[in-house]
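User: I'm putting together a small comparison set for a docking exercise, and I want a reference complex before I start. The sequence is below, and the ligand is inosine 5'-triphosphate. Could you produce the 3D structure with the ligand included, as structure tokens?
Assistant: Of course. I'll restate your input first, then give the structure tokens for the complex.
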Amino acid sequence: MVASGSHPPGAGAGAGAGGASSGRRTGPCEPVFDPPPERIVLATANAGKHAELVALLGGHVDVIARPPEIGEVIEDAGTLVGNARLKARAIMSATGEVALADDTGLEVDALDGRPGVDSSSFGGVDHDDARNIDRLLRELRDVPGPERTARFRTVLVLVAPDGRELVTEGVVEGTIAIGRSGVDGFGYDPVFVPDEGDGRTFADMTRAQKSAISHRGRALRALVVALGR
Ligand code: ITT
């Protein structure tokens, strides 16, 4: 089952998600994961993501952190939806609980969509945010402002031990700044300026301001709707 988050006009819904948006779009009030789970285990090991997911989902369902003893999941599916499915299934198998995974990519037009599904290791060392941003700014050094367009894409996969699966996606369009700004957020937030904002980067915004327009906020709101919560 697939449900899409709202996208700004022109935002692609399927690329990079392995067809996540090519399935049925659910009606706004129709629960599609029935019955909805009482609790959900988050598959993410990323503290920034975890905080955003809890803030958005916590009012709707009991949210459990990923048990620390579970090892890292190799993300080698090659697509956001494939990687999210790998992570969700691994945590669901280990816990016996309904599990939710997030896979996110930053798609930069001047780099033909890179780093995309490889966003976490773009700087050469996995999960090194500073190096990731350094490489991004280096590769865009000669790219003028109007051509620095980019988008974040999040795919969420929810899986249950009984085989049910729900996929949602959210996208936010923006541009890559010339340099870093802001101390909040995580990952590429200090250099991403959303089109729907006021010129600030995501790292200049509070978590609530970011989530109101972000890729993850959109994907999660679509998930909550699909759960009928
Ligand atoms: P899990 O797989 O444990 O959930 P991860 O950090 O490996 O965490 P991703 O592969 O989805 O997650 O993330 C790809 C990269 O994109 C990684 O460097 C993140 O820090 C970054 N990223 C993800 N969401 C972001 C956001 O909302 N703002 C800025 N950067 C983000």
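Confidence is low (pLDDT under 50) at residues 5-27. The CA atoms of residues 3 and 168 lie 5 Å apart.
User: Thanks, that's exactly what I needed.
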